[in-house]
Amino acid sequence: MASMTMISTDCSSSTAATTRLIPMRWHKGKALHFSPWVSLSNRLTASSFPSLSFKTRAFSPLISAKIVTENAAKVIDGKEVAQQIRKEIAVEILRMKDAIGVVPGLAVILVGDRKDSATYVRNKKKACEAVGINSFEVHLPENSTEQEVLDSISKFNEDPSVHGILVQLPLPSHMNEEKILNAVRIEKDVDGFHPLNIGRLAMRGREPLFVPCTPKGCIELLHRYGIEIKGKRAVVIGRSNIVGMPAALLLQREDATVTIVH
């Protein structure tokens, strides 16, 4: 018997989002022994349960059963894969620079002084530096107006040296998050939060320009470990716009049967 269940845990909140996908496989192999005598109906045969081996005793209707199974779960090393991907991106950026003289630029807009948000932004800048991407940052105070944020987005939208724009979430409560995210041009929406990108992700035969990074990273990990998704059952816990919902859509695109629990 061979089957795999993938569990995606969406712990997204105002401060963080985490997704984990855990593959489980069972194969014939390692024996799991029960007690010498297991009371089973003597009508059971080996053909009834191909993964069971049966031994019968002439003087007893009881059957000794041995279940043959193995837990072959893989440990997925995200750090190792991330290092490999960064090496690949660095090489690609050098080729791009040599071929067309363009270096990708990523702009981040941070509003307020949340320590967790500041840490995320700092890590993004380090990642950019590591692979050769130019990084830009606008840090606005907590009491900034919504229009000030929109003005910063507009500036980056028009800047040809900026190819991607990230608005660090969460925003202060007095701001309209949907309005601000929708102001980012779809071709620079590297977070994949624009309704047109999400709409394309949901439709068969359409391709989004960008996909939210956390669920995209989970699918990439499965691909790089050669784990087949097609035909499997997947459970996604949570339905946030940032992780849960796009994770479910990506799994559907891989022909998994998806259940969303919330």
UniProtKB/TrEMBL annotation:
Residues 212-262 form the Tetrahydrofolate dehydrogenase/cyclohydrolase NAD(P)-binding domain. GO terms for cellular component: cytosol. GO terms for molecular function: methenyltetrahydrofolate cyclohydrolase activity; methylenetetrahydrofolate dehydrogenase (NADP+) activity. Pfam families: THF_DHG_CYH, THF_DHG_CYH_C. It catalyses: (6R)-5,10-methenyltetrahydrofolate + H2O = (6R)-10-formyltetrahydrofolate + H(+). GO terms for biological process: tetrahydrofolate interconversion. Coiled coil: none annotated. Keywords: Hydrolase, Multifunctional enzyme, NADP, One-carbon metabolism, Oxidoreductase. Residues 76-191 form the Tetrahydrofolate dehydrogenase/cyclohydrolase catalytic domain. SUPFAM superfamilies: Aminoacid dehydrogenase-like, N-terminal domain (SSF53223), NAD(P)-binding Rossmann-fold domains (SSF51735). Transmembrane segments: none annotated. The keyword Hydrolase applies. Pathway: One-carbon metabolism; tetrahydrofolate interconversion. Belongs to the tetrahydrofolate dehydrogenase/cyclohydrolase family. This is Methenyltetrahydrofolate cyclohydrolase. It comes from Opuntia streptacantha (Prickly pear cactus). The lineage of its organism: Eukaryota, Viridiplantae, Streptophyta, Embryophyta, Tracheophyta.
